[in-house]
Amino acid sequence: MMKLRIALGLALAMGSPAIAGTRPADPLVVDRVVVLMRHGVRPPTKAPAMPAEVTPDRWPDWPVRPGWLTPHGAAAVARLGSADGVAWRQYGLLPAKGCPVPAAIRIVADSDQRTIATAKAWAATLVPGCTLAIDHRPQDEPDPRFSAIESGKAPLDPARADAAVAAEVGPGGFAALDARYRPLLTRLDTILCGTPRPGCGVSATPTGVAPARADKRPKLTGALDRASTAAQILLLEAAEGKPMAEIGWGRATLADVTALGEFHALEFRILARPRDIAAANFAGLADIVRAGLADTGPRITMISGHDTNIANLGGLFAVHWQVPGFAADDPVPGGALILERLHDKAGTRYVRIRYRAQTLEQLRSARPLGIHGPHDRILSIPGCNARGQAGLCTLDAALAKLG
User: Fold this and answer.
1) CB 161 within 8 Å of CB 116
2) DSSP letter at 170?
3) Would you say 376 and 356 are in contact if contact means Cβ atoms under 8 Å apart?
4) Is residue 126 classed as helix, strand or coil in its secondary structure?
5) Crossing angle between the packed helical segments 182-193 and 173-180, to the nearest 10 degrees
6) Mean pLDDT throughout 218-240?
7) Cα–Cα distances in angstroms (integers) from residue 114 to residues 27, 65, 228, in the given order
């Protein structure tokens, strides 16, 4: 009975195929899904996590190497795989019993340990007892599909990229941005330093940007760059379920973690979501997405990547999300943008987008997700109004947005 309740709850949360359309006589039915997922919870990618002048205190220990998926993070991803499996059985994308045929599911992971391990943890619970192939390069060998700009697959136009960054920064440039975020920067410095200390914290150096090159994305420097990194470390500590005494050395609250996440989202708004940058950086993955939306593609495509990839795709479709405990548009560990392809009785294809992730409390607690499942919302795609439904794209319109 409990399994039935969970299944029904997840089907309602995900949008049952029988009620997905706006016309009862001609419902839309989901026939393909493409999942772009950020890897699960990891430690900072460096040890020490940040330069010594940022804080006098020693950063907390982690159970795995820098940048690797933690056991806590793997368990969180496994919960998502189980929830996705329940929902997609409701859609008919997975068999009610037994294993799917190999051609029905495609899983692609970047070559980092955390992305490969995330794909494995998700696949193990999507269809328990079944072996699913995972397409990835040898660990730590660069994969051009996930680095289209640096690999030369999609060179940037530096002038257009820099102009896009300037447009996002807005009037007054980075000086005005630093001033706008001064109260939040001061709060972060207090967490990092305890008491004010000369040269301590992240805010002393004005924010700037290293300009784009054909083979390199633009990059923030100075205060907002370091603030984004520090804020993400605090968030990962919280998502890992560390005790409050270890999160920001006991000087940060969960409300601080949420508020400071705005720095991480801001970095992506400036550097990853503008269309000229997003289209180039996502070019290698766009091919996989297109194949996953095609009639000849697998029913389920899963890409295990990074927060930058999520921000790129979010920028291309101009969609926005907010998960409890996280700043608006901040990619959640294990969170995913899910493109659903649907069809009507005439066979016309459509696309809608969801954002699915665990809340910060769900990540911290490590408890079963329960009847309501993860946070899951259909996002409105600007400029799409298929069947008179705001935010629903025709398949052709969705493909055009991929660039």
Assistant:
1) no
2) -
3) yes
4) helix
5) 60
6) 98
7) 39, 10, 20
Tens of pLDDT, residues 87-124: 999 999 999 999 999 999 999 999 999 999 999 999 99
Residues 187 and 176: their CA atoms lie apart, in Å, by 18
Strands 105-109 and 300-305 turn out to be parallel
Give the pTM. 0.93
Which distant-in-sequence residues (6+ apart) come within 8 Å of 52 by Cβ? none
**Is the pLDDT assigned to residue 317 strictly greater than 70?**
yes
Name the token pair of 189.
């410095």
pLDDT at residue 19, as a whole number: 39
Distance CA 333, CA 73 (A): 8
Please tell me whether the peptide bond between 142 and the residue prior to it is cis, using omega within 30 degrees of 0. no
Q: What is the pLDDT of residues 169-226, one digit of tens each?
A: 999 999 999 999 999 999 999 999 998 888 899 999 999 999 999 999 999 999 999 9
* HSE value, Cβ hemisphere, 13 Å, CA-based, for 282: 30
Neighbours of 107 (CB within 10 A): 21
* Count of residues in the chain: 403
Tokens of 359: 């809340």
Say if residues 166 and 158 touch (Cβ distance below 8 Å).
no
Strands 349-357 and 375-379 turn out to be antiparallel
| Residue recorded with tokens 């795995």 | 64
